[in-house]
């Protein structure tokens, strides 16, 4: 670039992350409304919890929760908060948080494969 030229930057694209809670919600192990409330209370923006403002929106469609962030937001932070919720409700021993193979912006809550672990112990 030559001197004196300015570059106009467009609006930053919002990043959207989804947490698929369909399996535990169908089995009535987890309440999705309490998980949504937990995320709204615990997500930090500018070092303060509970103040989402216009930068972060949390929405729920059936058994999925979508978090849309206008500012910088880490997918890893969302996984951390999900694990914290599972531990608080004593279901962390049965559920795990896994990134989906199809779409990398989606986390899924899946059960541990207990049957495979028992077969390995018998050998």
Describe this structure in words.
- By secondary structure, the chain is an alpha+beta fold.
- It contains 4 helices and 7 strands, in the order E-H-H-E-E-E-E-H-E-E-H.
- Strands 4-5-1-7-6 form a 5-stranded mixed sheet. A two-stranded antiparallel sheet has the order 2-3.
- A hairpin with a 6-residue loop joins strand 6 (95-99) and strand 7.
- It is globular and about 45 Å long.
- The relative contact order is 0.20.
The total of beta strands comes to 7
The radius of gyration computed from the alpha-carbon positions, rounded to a whole number of angstroms, is: 19 Å
Query: Which sequence of SSEs, written as H and E, runs from N to C?
Result: EHHEEEEHEEH
Described by strand count, sense and barrel closure, the largest sheet is: 5 strands, mixed
List keywords for this structure.
two-stranded antiparallel sheet, 123 residues, alpha+beta, 4 helices, single chain, 5-stranded mixed β-sheet
């Amino acid at each position: 670039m030559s001197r004196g030229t300015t570059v106009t930057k467009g609006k930053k694209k919002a990043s959207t992350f989804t947490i698929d809670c369909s399996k535990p919600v169908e089995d009535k192990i987890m309440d999705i409304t309490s998980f949504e409330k937990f995320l709204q209370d615990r997500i930090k923006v500018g070092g303060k919890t509970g103040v989402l403002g216009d930068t972060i929106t949390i929405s729920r469609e059936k058994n999925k929760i979508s978090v849309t962030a206008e500012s910088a937001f880490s997918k890893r932070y969302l996984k951390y908060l999900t694990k914290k919720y599972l531990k608080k409700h004593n279901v962390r021993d049965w559920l795990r948080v896994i990134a989906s193979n199809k779409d990398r912006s989606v986390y899924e809550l899946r059960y541990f494969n207990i049957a495979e672990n028992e077969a390995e112990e018998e050998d």
